[in-house]
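Quick start: what a row looks like.
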Amino acid sequence: MMKNDILQKASDMFLSLGFKSVTMDDIANELGISKKTIYQHYATKDDLVQATTLFLFENISSGIDEICAIGKNPIEELFEIKEYVLHNLKNEDSSPFYQLQKFYPKIYATLKCKQFDKLDSCVIQNLKRGIALELYRKEIDLEFIGRIYYSGINSLKDIEIFPENMFKMRNLQENFLEYHLRGIITEKGLSVLQQFITKHNQ
C-alpha cells in the first residue's frame, strides 16, 4: 500500500513540477512520511523515477487498450485516446519530459522504446480498421504511417521546436491529429472527421 502511495504521489508531482525539480524530501513532505520510508522502497531517486515512468506507462497502456476494445470508429478512437493521454499526463506539458530526457537519459530511452512498441501496434491496428471501413485510403503504407505518427507525436514535446510560451500541448495534439488524419482519409473519412470536429467544437 505504501509503495503504491509513493508511486502515485511521485507521479503527480513529477508530471506537475518536473522529474528533476521534485526531490525525495518534497515527496516525503507531501505524503507526511519520512524520507527514510521512501528509501526503504526505492534506494535512489533514479529507482523511483524509473518505477514511476513504468507505473505511468502501464496505467496509460491499460486505458488505451480499454478504449480500443470498445470498437468505436477509428477516427473517433484516435481522438478519444488523445484525450485520455492528455488527461492522465496532466495535459502533457513539455517540461517534465524535457527534464526526464535531459537528466535521466537511460530511463527516457527505455520509456521511448516501450512507447514506440505500444503506439506502433495501436496505430497499425487503427489503420487496418480504417481501411476496412473505407475511412482511410487502402494504398497507404502502414509501417511508414505508423512510424511517422510516432515521430510526429514525440516531436511535439521538443521545446526548441515548439516553445511552451508559443504553443499549448492540447492545441498541438489536436492540430497534429487532424493533420495526420487528413493525410490518410478517404472522402467518406473526411465526412466523418468533419462531423466529429463540428460536434467536438460545439
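That is the whole record. The CA atoms of residues 24 and 71 lie 42 Å apart. The mean pLDDT is 93.
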